[in-house]
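Ticket #319: bound-state structure for zinc ion.
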Amino acid sequence: MERLDAAVAAATECPVCGSSHTKLYLDGAPPALDNAAFGSSRTELSFGRILRCRDCGFGFAETRPAEDQLKRLYRQMDVAVYESEVQGRTRTARRHRKILQRYVSKPGRILDVGCASGRFLSECASAGWTVTGLEPSRILCQEAQRLLGGGAPIFPITLQEADFPESSFNAVTMWDVLEHVPCPREFLRQALCLLKPGGLLFVNVPNLDSLQARCMRRRWPLFLPEHLNYFTRESLARCCTQSGVRLIALGSRPVSFSIGYIVHRAGQHVPLLRPLGRIAARLSIADAVVPVWMGELYAVWNKTNASGRSQDALVVEGI
Ligand SMILES: [Zn+2]
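RESOLUTION: The complex was predicted; output attached.
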């Protein structure tokens, strides 16, 4: 097991807008930053100190590991619990494909950054897309290659390590990825370079202004050791303000999990709920898969053509 005590940086300025006007939002125990804290199999939940920017509302972990440290942790992450939720993750992948198709009229080339075991890309391939995936977890990458067939271009690397030519893709997606990266603005800039003119970028992230986050505070299940960033509508919009790119949609969608998994996760954050696991098992409902709204936010950006003619109005769905 790897533990990373050295070389973590303490953020003092907002990683989105650069403001130094920040305040302590939540004071948690120092994060473990080891294999016990990363991924759905985690047993450690300490999320550390969460700061909040007074100017843009962005929330961020004060302790920020370097990219190469994170890469090593994600490469060897325990994915047993993640992979046990196949049915729910397949339903969520189908939901993501429907969001994609709402904004893209015909299939083209798509890159999924952090594609996990490839279920979203599998949905896209079935709908006629030419798919490419990046997944730093070795085991998940192998599973995605198996799911999509041996020849599918699924690479065990991060976006920073990829060397695709500019303007390679009609769509780039990152479902539940941006909260994990030390420099979200730079990460989005790199993703946008890979889009063809007229292409679309889809991002889903935790929403710090959601009802769930505001009501549950430190018990919100998305406060996790591996999450470095917590967004709001304003701070997510500010992540991507370069010319030639327009925010065209904001929305929220549920994820699907088994009741057994939901109770397990809820019991980790609210110990009083742990007996519900035994009740669910006794009632034989632990395997039933249901939608759950975690308090997330998705955004769609359009890379306009050179003349900047795109005048799409902002679509707001379900938030
Ligand atoms: Zn800020």
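RESOLUTION NOTES: Residues 1-7 have pLDDT under 50 and may be disordered.
TICKET STATUS: resolved
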